[in-house]
Design brief:
The protein has 532 residues and is an alpha/beta fold. Helix content is 50%, strand content 8%. The protein folds into 3 domains: 258 residues, no CATH class; 95 residues, no CATH class; 124 residues. Bound molecules: adenosine-5'-triphosphate and magnesium ion.
Length: 532
């Protein structure tokens, strides 16, 4: 077995696997599970998962490999694109429905170029005259140098008059349109609609040999320069466009073996805030929800264990049975495990300190591997390494960083500071009851007033903030049964399921801050005396 220092632990953020040199690594470590098969089902429009659950990893794996007759590609929405939307909105006085029309044209354009690139030669796509005309118009617009990025596709929309004229011109040249049509700069919506129809008629004509998925990633982090409401409008438009093309247009194409589809990568809380109609049915029928939950007593059979164990096993020179690599590197038992196991229970310790997300576990492994002071020829990682305060602090900071990213969708950095302030008012307590919570919240409100800051929306009332802390998995709540034995513990990430996408917190009970975060939030050790 490899020494700990030589272990290759992959990347905690799957965006790194995009680079060509890392493609092989992802193929080696990636577990092809049900989530992957489900993503290839024709009814799927959304890939939903909390931060670090693998959304990007699935889309990149599928983009790197043809799988089940499905060819995929992934595009990212970036800050510059949102900025362009901001200026478009000003320039053309856009309404919400226009955002969705814009996105439709963008998605169609990216998909058209993608199918041509990936199966143009086998399917002879250019023999379809409408598709051919469409392609010539795009080529003329981009001087035959279209690079398939959203920003490029956006400029086609922005110059709607020119783009529509080119589409009309080439349709006429190919004998697909008899009348000459004229377009006006000021009638943006009309031009857009014309473009959309042109794409739809061209795409209905082609017959494909393979299925094609276009993944859209990167909508979960709002750049600070883009105001929240506009950002929300923009991604609402995107989600609606994805939904509409997948349900109202693509299924109408008859013939051929392959189908086209766009899939949006999205966090559950954001999926909720965009407020699509019939959200619950959409989650059940049209989404893959990345769910890594397991119980302590069945953890060895969980997919989460499999992902990590497999990552350790594939890099050894011989092939190993499930669990062998894990037990080699972590040959110890977790404390306070009362059930009997016939294998070491070290993985339970990792579960306790994580939100059952692959990124949490991969990050822990990476930090443990790097632990300084340890000896360089370590063959395994000990329980003492895990208990090392330095490691705990680093990991805790990682978790807080994830929360910061999560929050950045909704709030700016000023609000993040206020949010952190709350934990000071807990006076070091990591376990508290409702009264104590209300008290700390009251102190926080006084603080906000004293610094003349505006109160963030998530702090509108004490219960809103409690729910917010629960949504972020910072606190759990504990219900006691009648006989008052073991408390029943509720975590948002554990209660969340297809049927209950946003679990609610209970008031008037006891709460506890997540172990892993205690260090970064400075709780867990009660302060003797502290005056505020
Ligand atoms: N099926 C799998 N097999 C192996 N590794 C996986 C699998 N699914 C997820 N992972 C690992 O999980 C980690 C986190 O995944 P990823 O970066 O895709 O999360 P994400 O959901 O895109 O998060 P964010 O919302 O922050 O973008 C990566 O290290 C990735 O390799
Ligand atoms: Mg991602």
């Amino acid at each position: 077995m490899k020494l700990v220092k030589d272990l290759e632990l992959g990347f905690a953020d799957a965006e790194n696997y995009k680079r060509r040199e890392n493609k092989e690594l992802l193929n080696r470590v990636f577990i092809r599970d049900d989530h992957l098969d489900n993503l290839c089902e024709p009814n799927i429009s959304f890939l939903i998962g909390e931060k670090g659950t693998g959304k990007t990893a699935y889309s990149i794996f599928l983009s790197n490999n043809e799988y089940k007759d499905t060819i995929s590609s992934t595009r990212y929405v970036r800050e510059t694109e949102y900025q362009k939307f901001v200026s478009l909105k000003k320039e053309k006085h856009l309404q919400i429905s226009d955002f969705s029309s814009i996105w439709k044209v963008i998605l169609y354009l990216l998909i058209s170029k993608e199918i041509l690139k990936r199966e143009g030669s086998i399917s002879k796509l250019l023999n379809y005259s409408k598709f051919n005309a469409l392609n010539s118009a795009i080529d003329e617009y981009y001087y035959s140098a279209f690079s398939p990025e959203i920003i490029q596709a956006l400029s086609f929309v922005q110059e709607s008059k020119l783009a529509a004229e080119l589409l009309a011109k080439h349709a006429k040249l190919k004998g697909e349109e008899s009348e000459s049509v004229t377009f006006s700069e000021s009638r943006f919506q009309v031009n857009l609609f014309y473009m959309q129809k042109k794409f739809e008629s061209a795409l209905s004509q082609v017959r494909l040999a393979k299925n094609h998925i276009l993944f859209i990633d990167g909508i979960d982090i709002r750049p600070s320069s883009i105001p929240y409401t506009l950002y929300l409008e923009c991604i609402k438009g995107l989600a609606n466009a994805v939904w509409e093309i997948n349900n109202d247009f693509f299924p109408t194409i008859k013939g051929g073996q392959g189908r086209m589809r766009a899939v949006l990568l999205i966090r559950p809380d954001i999926f909720e805030s965009i407020g699509l109609q019939n959200q619950n049915t959409k989650i059940r029928d049209n989404a893959v929800f990345l769910d890594w939950r397991t119980q302590y007593n069945s953890h060895r059979h969980s997919q989460l264990f499999e992902v990590v164990d497999h990552m350790l096993a594939v890099q050894q020179s011989t092939s190993l049975a499930r669990g062998v690599a894990w037990d080699h590197y972590f040959p110890w038992d977790s404390p306070n495990v009362f059930e009997e196991y016939d294998t070491p229970t070290s993985f339970i310790n990792f579960l306790r300190w994580s939100y059952y997300r692959p990124r949490d576990i991969v990050t822990m492994l990476e930090l443990l591997k790097r632990r300084p002071g340890g000896n360089n020829d370590r063959t395994f990682i000990s329980y003492e390494d895990f208990e090392n305060p330095e490691f705990k602090r680093e990991y805790s900071n990682y978790l807080l960083g994830e929360i910061k990213d999560h929050l950045s969708f909704y709030y700016g950095s000023g609000h993040y500071d206020i949010f952190l302030k709350f934990f000071e008012y807990l006076s070091g307590k990591d376990k508290f009851d409702y009264e104590y919570y209300l008290n700390a919240f009251e102190k926080l409100l006084n603080h906000i007033e004293s610094v003349a800051s505006d109160r963030p929306k998530f702090m509108a009332t004490a219960n809103d903030f409690l729910q917010f802390l629960f949504d972020l998995n910072i606190i759990c709540f504990m219900e006691r049964t009648e006989d008052n034995h073991q408390p029943f513990i509720h975590w948002c990430f554990r209660d969340r399921s297809y049927a209950n996408i946003s679990p609610k917190v209970k008031t008037g009970v006891e709460y506890q801050i997540f172990y892993g975060l205690a260090k970064a939030l400075n709780v867990g050790k009660e302060f003797k005396e502290k005056k505020f």
